[in-house]
Amino acid sequence: MTPRLRLVFDTNAVVSATLSDGSVPGRALTIALRVGTVLMSRALNDELDDVLRRPRFDRYATLERREEFLRNLMLGVEPVEVIESVRACRDPKDDKILELAVNGNADYIVTGDDDLLAMNPFRDIEIVRPAEFLAVVSSQTTEP
């Protein structure tokens, strides 16, 4: 039996999944929760909570739906305490994603953020777009 993948989903991927579960990021997150271990830090949870409360998303989903999505997501993730700081991304706001991945021994970071994607791989952690993650999972489940 192969070990479960350890995964970090960046804020943009989770927000996209929240607003449209049929989207590529939505499908990627759904599959990740089923076949892998999605990691979450306090910093990422706080950022998601803040971003999902922004009124600009009201036209896509009610605040209540977005809050419920985040509550349900938190039930399925593995909390990670960030002990080792990371300062490596050209956008310092993205360092929290790298910190979570490093401290949680992640296999993949799933993101649409070009600043993170430009760093692929980072300390042996693959950084991929949601569609690439779906292709990886698909190839692993179809191998003999």
Structural features, described:
The protein has 144 residues and is an alpha/beta fold. The protein has a single domain, classed as Rossmann fold, CATH 3.40.50.1010. 49% of the residues lie in helices and 13% in strands. The chain is built from seven helices and five strands, in the order βααβααβαβαβα. It has helices at 11-19, 24-35, 42-52, 63-75, 95-103, 114-117, 130-142; strands at residues 5-9, 36-40, 77-79, 108-110, 126-128. The protein has a five-stranded parallel β-sheet with strand order 3-2-1-4-5, sandwiched between helices. α1 crosses α2, α2 crosses α7 (130-142) and α3 (42-52) packs antiparallel against α4 (63-75). The model has no long low-confidence stretch (mean pLDDT 93).
Give a summary of the structure in a few sentences:
The chain has 144 residues and is an alpha/beta fold. Helix content is 49%, strand content 13%.
Features:
144 residues; 49% helix; globular; 5-stranded parallel β-sheet; alpha/beta
Catalogue the unreliable spans: none
Which CATH architecture is right? 3-Layer(aba) Sandwich
Overall residue-averaged pLDDT value: 93
CATH class bucket: Alpha Beta
Shape: globular
Which strand-content bin applies to the residues? 5-15%
CATH superfamily: 5'-nuclease
Q: What is the quaternary state of this protein?
A: single chain
The first-to-last residue Cα distance is: 13 Å
**Count of folded domains:** 1
Topology pattern, helix = H, strand = E: EHHEHHEHEHEH
- Number of E-type strands: 5
Largest sheet: 5 strands, parallel
Structural class: alpha/beta
State the helix count.
7
